[in-house]
Every structure is written in C-alpha cells, then in structure tokens.
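Exercise 7.
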Amino acid sequence: MPRLPGTRLVLSVCLALAVASCSRGSAAALDTERVPGPAVDVPPGARTTEVAILAGGCFWGVQGVYQHVNGVTSAVSGYAGGDERTAEYEMVGTGRTGHAESVRIVFDPRIVTYGRLLQIFFSVAHDPTELNRQGPDQGPQYRSALFPTSADQSRVAKAYIQQLNDAKVFGTPIVTTVEEGREFYRAEAYHQDFLERNPSHPYIVVNDLPKVAALKRSFADFYRSKPALAGSFD
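Solution. The predicted structure, written as tokens, is:
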C-alpha cells in the first residue's frame, strides 16, 4: 500500500501505485468459480464465536472483504508474525520485523465456517501464488500467510493448501505459509475501516473494490451489504 506519513495520504504516490497495479491485474480478476471449497473443515459444534487471523497483502483490502462476509462480526487490521515491540506501521514497513499485515476476524462458525473463510481468502481476497508481494506492494510484510488459532484451524489450513495444489487450481504452487503460535497486534486507528471510509481513494478503487465486487458475485449467499466495522462487536 502507499506509505503514509502519519495519517496523511500522498495522492501522487497513490495514483502512481494505482496505475502500476492496474497494469499487473489483481487477485479479484481470478475466475473464482474454479476455486473449490475445502474437503476438510472445522465443524461448528456449539461455538458461537471463533477467531481467524490471516494475511494477504495490504490489510485495507483484506479487512474490507471480510467486513462484508455474513457471519463475521469484526474484522480488524493489524500485524502478526513478529514481536509486540515492532508492531508499528513504519517499523513493519521495513520488512525486517517478521510481521505481516494481517486481519483478525471474529466470526460465528454456525453461519460461516473457517473453511469457507479460507475459500474466500484463496479466491477473492488475494493471489496466493505471489511470493512476498501483492499487486504493487512488495516485501515479506505483504506475504500470504495463515495464523491458526487452534489445532483444528491448522489442520484444515494445511489440508486445503494441499488440496488446491494437488488439483493445480492456480497453475503454479500456492506460497501461503501456515504460521502457528503467533500473536496478533492491532494496527493504528487510521488504518481501521480504511476501505469503508475512503471508497474513492485511488488505491482502494483499483486494488480493493474489485475484490468486494468479486465477493458479492461469487459468494452471494455469504455477502452482506452492511460492513462489520473494526471493533463493532469485538
């Protein structure tokens, strides 16, 4: 994403990145119909609340996608993979902290399962074949990663990646990592709900609104028009 000096945006940089991204295409351009659901999933049981943490490039768009998924009660942007002392935007942006820009999702597994969230992740939210980058954003902080919050999630994530790779769904191998035992740290307030607050921002228009549109088109049964904003229920 464009680097932000404090909370101010540099429009010229945003426009340049938007043009660059447009020339490369986006994950939303994938034929989402060809990404099958997981053969193995976490059964909902009696739980009404579960947490998923994932990373798929700039957290603005990933957060924006999951805020429109029915059954999601909160989607918060933040950092995972590194230490608490380095969980700060400018430090993470160096690419040397171990963190990835991530989103913590609180959801009701009776409505949307962890496996369904992963299907959305692999088909709509980002391109899982891009190593340490997404669109115009480059560096390990933009890597594709899953941070399981339970043994069941870890098992399902690994099985699903294997399933999609065996089926050669993407033509090239998925580079998504499964990183266990990592803490999540909430990002700065000016990053939260960025897509909803800035729908005409050039970066959002080019990179992220097409992902929300793809969600609505390909997962109509799980799409909600009213977003679950960060911290609304969490």
